[in-house]
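Okay, any thoughts on this one?
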Amino acid sequence: MTHPFLDLAPLTAGRFAAIEDRVARLLGTRQDVVITQGEALLPLEGAIRSAAGPGTVALNVITGPYGQTFGNWLRDCGATVHDLSVPFHTAVSAEQVRAALAEHPEIDFVSLVHAEAATGNTNPVAEIGEVVRAHGALFYLDAVASVGAEPVLPDAWGVDLCVIGAQKAMGGPAGVSAVSVSERAWARMAANPNAPRRSYLSLLDWKERWTDAGRKALPHAPAQLEMLALEACVERLEAAGPETVMARHASAAAATRAGALALGGGLEPYVYEARDAAPVATTLRVPSDLDASALVARALESDPALPLAAGGGALAQEMIRVNHYGPHATRGAVQGCLAALGAALAGAGVGADLGAARRTVESSWGTRTGEGLSQA
């Protein structure tokens, strides 16, 4: 018998190229866009290994765990790395980046995460981009979590390597991702003798065998289901209007932050200032006498599908993360998470005001933002 997910016609090179073009329009970029056949870690690592080497001097901004990973990759490539670390409860500022570049004028590569879903902060990329552009360094940006939830504009911001994924605010699969590449970045890769070649990590292979060859023949069989799902994600964003979808994420973030404060029980926003809080996830600090992992486990007993998680690694005991992105950027998801957390607090003998939280979410939610992506 036939099956709609299995008995598919082959994905043509023309269809693949058309999906790349739609992603480029989503990003407002005239740069080359390469869709990579794997989770976003593939182009994130591939871009660093392609553009960085022993002669590279990098400023690596750390506002969460992914920034730490990028520093490790850069060092493994032989680059000299200057880390700019800020507390995870805040965002980096353009002034901090400017000061670091002034202290180390030899820096020629800057790596930054736009929105850190793991820690709940987001960084002011437009302002930082101006500073990096004035310095003349190559600018590498992880926009995997932010795309779809807030503006991502590589050309306007001077981003040379901008990596996105579909699995968060876009509400799509984790198995496909994309990177926009500036001419400066291609030139840097071409001049790097250590850039991967004939490798799954190689962006230069894609340029040679796909982009420069006129996008007529695919280098290898594409991840067909993921490509079609990515196309559907972009279609859905286009139909709803990116501004509408971004407003929905902003409403979810504001309502979660305000609702958690109204809930009480000692929960506090982990990111101190609302302006630094990411629209994809709200992180909450639990009282010192409670364990975040245990509280989340208790909250998920009522509904394991709620987008709740404890912090990773050393943050597991103190941080709760409400992942209100993609299909969970809805009033219902926010209300459900806070209600479950309130019940978990009550089960731990801590008072919580569920009614106040519910009313605050309703009053905090922005008007005319609609609901989930599925209703777009």
The first strand starts at residue 32 and ends at 36. The domain at 241-375 is CATH 3.90.1150.10 (Aspartate Aminotransferase, domain 1). The two ends are 33 Å apart (CA to CA). The CA atoms of residues 332 and 344 lie 18 Å apart.
